Amino acid sequence: MIGKIEKLLNMDDYDLEAVFTPAVVNVLILDFVFTCTLLPVAENTEWWRTAIAIAAPLAASVVLFRFAMHSFREVARTTVESILYRKDRLRFPTTSMLLYNDSSISKVMKKRVREDIKAQYNITLCTKAQENADEMEARRTAKDAVALIRKTVADNKDAMTRRKLIRYGMFRNFLGGALFCLPFSIICWAVSYYLTSASNVAILFAMLVYFIIVIVDYFLTKSAAVDYAETLITTFDKMNHNETYN
User: Fold this and answer.
1) Which residues have C-beta within 8 Å of that of residue 6, sequence separation ≥ 6?
2) In terms of Cα–Cα distance, which of 33, 32, 21 is closest to 173?
3) Are 123 and 149 in contact (CB under 8 A)?
């Protein structure tokens, strides 16, 4: 079934690994919780057959799954990244690495990259004094430059940067899906407990594991973002100085 959906969605490598895969994991976990909690209760009600007749075609709809995929992705881009990197993602690692106050990359590389940004895009990044006076403006200027760097590297079709971007997107988009599916899983369990006064230990354990996975994924997302940022900046530097990866 998942294979058929994958083919019908006609996805590129990013959509397949960074959007489709985390969406499937989140939906499967939610489906498992629903099946073990509310489904046995609903099956004993008169409206169940009517609901199934309406919902089944929608559940199998490729369009609906695409909507879920991209909803999770947008939540990840807007909510998750705002939590991790503040409003407008001004503290994303790629932006921070271009500032003098960040020591993630060497001073030599930082100097070369800043010079290349000036030469290629006619963008002059803020000096150290200007950064200290108005850090947010310095970050906004660096963010503008990063957008152009991403396009340049993408046009060069660098495989390593693409892999790191997909890895970051997968972890981030899983968090976006979890913001939907984890609360709904808890609601399913709570409603089932309220109606039956019985608690399934397996479901509680599954939700605990799900919650732990979400916490671990939060830290993996932050790590993957740094990894992607370092690769993007390094690749841009190597492109401009005729260097290649070994």
Assistant:
1) 16, 20
2) 21
3) no
Q: Which residues of the chain have pLDDT under 70?
A: 1-10, 38-63, 243-246
CA of 22: how far to CAs of 113, 195, 211, 225, in Å?
Answer: 34, 31, 15, 17
What pLDDT, in 10s, does the model give residues 40-49?
Answer: 655 555 544 5
Mark 20-32 as b/e (b = at least 16 C-beta within 10 Å).
bbbbbbbbebbeb
With CA atoms as reference, report the closest residue to 38 among 194, 191, 198, 184: 191
3-state secondary structure of 119: helix
- Residues 6+ positions from 140 with CB-CB distance below 8 Å: 88, 90
